[in-house]
From TrEMBL:
InterPro entries named among the record's database cross-references: DNA_pol3_chi (IPR007459), PolIII_chi_sf (IPR036768)
BP GO terms, sorted: DNA replication; positive regulation of DNA-templated DNA replication initiation
Species, as recorded: Candidatus Phycorickettsia trachydisci
Protein name listed in UniProt: DNA polymerase III subunit chi
Molecular-function GO term, any one: DNA-directed DNA polymerase activity
Pfam family, one: DNA_pol3_chi
Membrane spanning stretches: none
Length: 141
């Protein structure tokens, strides 16, 4: 299991905005991050959003199918997770067993996904919901 698990519940419209913000923060803090999406199309969408997210700066990233994937600080995959030298795992609407990472961050848009996560993960989870003010409410589940 991961040492730290954060679960973010938000609406579909805000998913990519907040995902890009989190990945930008992961990059700036030097985390080597693996992003696991539910399928190839969603991986392409994350890739496209990262290219256009910040006008002033670029967030280095790549897809698992790209050349030089080993050198990417942020790697996006839709394939099974193979632990390598990544310390951070980000799951995007894709609830799978979490291999041993230092930290895991899970983005979900449906309440049923939250229950699935609680059933799968038998440790304390930091649960964040986006409120109407655009800030995060926190609780532990």
């Amino acid at each position: 299991m991961s040492q730290s698990i954060n679960l973010y519940k938000l609406n579909t419209e805000g998913l990519y905005k907040y995902l890009c913000q989190l990945l930008s923060k992961c990059y700036s803090q030097g985390y080597k991050t693996l992003v696991k999406t539910k399928d190839y199309n969603q991986a392409q969408e994350v890739d496209n959003k990262l290219w256009t997210f910040a006008q002033q700066s670029f967030i280095p990233h790549g897809l698992i199918s790209d050349e030089f994937k080993e050198s990417q600080p942020i790697l996006i995959t839709w394939q099974d997770i193979v632990k390598s030298d990544f310390d951070t795992l980000v799951l995007v609407e894709n609830i799978v067993d979490i291999p041993n990472f230092q930290r895991a961050m899970i983005f979900c848009t449906e309440d049923t996904q939250i229950q699935n996560i609680k059933n799968l993960i038998k440790q304390t989870i930091n649960y964040y919901t986006l409120n109407s003010k655009g800030t995060w409410d926190h609780q532990t589940i």
